[in-house]
Amino acid sequence: MIKDFGAGVGLLLRGFSLVFSSPKRVLVGALPAVITAVLMITGWVFLFTNIDSIAGWLTGFADSWSDTWKGVAEVAVGISVIAAGLGLSVLLFTAITIMIGGPFYEYISEEVEDELGGVPEAEQIGWWRGFLVGLRSTILLVGTSILFAIPLFLCGFIPVIGQTVVPVLAVCINGYLLGIELTGIPFTRRGRTFKQRRQILATRRGLVLGLAVPTYLLCLIPLAALVVIPAAMAGGTVLSHRLLNGNRATA
């Protein structure tokens, strides 16, 4: 697992090398991310300006408590909501960016795979099909993330564990889901279904986490996603190419 994780980090670094070797790839990859960034910033402004109201609504059960304990509950819930929103926003950012920029990222993926030897009889995704595929996977992945977020949210109230173990688990879970998203285009070009993608990636979870967890953490840095997502897409393409072409030992 540790060796695979390190190899996954290497795939992300290779993705940066592949993207930044061509100014055109940098521009093509950044454009959809810029559009998504504007949408996400708008959403975050709305969340922060209304967090008091949201926390108050979620802590309605504490209305009969003393002002001190009610305040503590509201602060704890507000922090948890922001943390959950932050985790979901990385997945949403990637998913929305891929949906908007399907042809852009397909271009990058095709160029990367051509350098790796090409894909015989590859399917052309196109914007509309890429959008629908991306929308479906987004709904499934975000839905899965929410299912995990609920128990993690509750565990966040456990002293010590809620402040140490839970954040690490949240990063790993959301990172892995992000890794599934990053490999969507190369799998779809080969006619593989979402279920098949999950099954194949599950055989090398360490690799997926090594690629996706650093990507997830880097995307938490404001505007870093503009360059991180294209690089991660290129790294995900390399990972998919190797796994789908049977080169699993060196993937």
TrEMBL record:
Localization per record: Membrane
Organism, scientific name: Lentzea kristufekii
Residues annotated as transmembrane: 26-47, 75-100, 139-162, 168-187, 207-233
Protein name: EI24 domain-containing protein
Membrane topology qualifier: Multi-pass membrane protein
Keyword Ubl conjugation tagged: no
Taxonomic lineage from the root: Bacteria, Bacillati, Actinomycetota, Actinomycetes, Pseudonocardiales
Domain of life: Bacteria
Keyword terms, alphabetized: Amino-acid biosynthesis, Cell inner membrane, Cell membrane, Membrane, Sulfate transport, Transmembrane, Transmembrane helix, Transport
